[in-house]
Design goal:
The chain has about 160 residues and is of the alpha+beta class. The chain is built from 5 helices and 7 strands. The radius of gyration is 14 Å and the shape is globular. It has one domain. The termini are close together. The protein is about 25% helix and about 20% strand.
Length: about 160
């Protein structure tokens, strides 16, 4: 079964603010979030229950998550986050005019990449949530909208 991600643009890249926004709903599993940001990693990122991926960096070949190369902001391979890899969206953004050199394998169509690259360049973040049952996507979309995310959409993997 292909992965489905609900994604949206967060108003900030601040770790504490994102935790407050995204972790207040007990129905969403913190391990299923991937937060893409351009901020420098901090101690707070290292201890967060959310998984942060830093855009604009080269990924370490030694860090693997579910068999794919990745580099979390903390530098710790930690618990696996499905869909975080060194391909996919990253390849498209590297060549994009507003490139953030994002290296995340999310099923985001090319017509949406500019929106996400702009958000990252402006200090906001891209939030992706792995939806394990497609029928739950509308509930997750509404939950993320209620949390303050913009441009919330579900993208289906191949």
């Amino acid at each position: 079964m292909a992965a489905h991600y609900v994604t949206g643009i967060g108003p900030t890249s601040d770790c504490a603010a994102l935790e407050s926004m995204l972790l207040k709903n007990a129905q969403l599993n913190p391990a299923d979030f991937v937060i893409i940001t351009k901020v420098e990693p901090t101690a707070q990122h290292a201890t967060s229950r959310l998984k942060f991926v830093r855009a604009g960096i080269e990924h370490d070949a030694g860090r693997t998550v579910h068999g794919a190369q990745t580099h979390m902001m903390t530098g710790d391979p930690g618990a696996g986050v499905p869909g975080v890899t060194s391909g996919g969206v990253g390849a498209a953004l590297v060549g994009h005019a507003a490139s953030s050199h994002l290296k995340v394998d999310l099923p985001i169509p090319s017509d949406q990449l500019a929106n996400y690259a702009t958000a990252l360049d402006e200090g906001r973040c891209v939030v992706a949530y792995l939806v394990k049952a497609e029928e739950n996507a509308p509930l997750v979309e509404q939950t993320l909208r209620d949390a303050g995310l913009k441009n919330v959409k579900t993208f289906h993997g191949k």
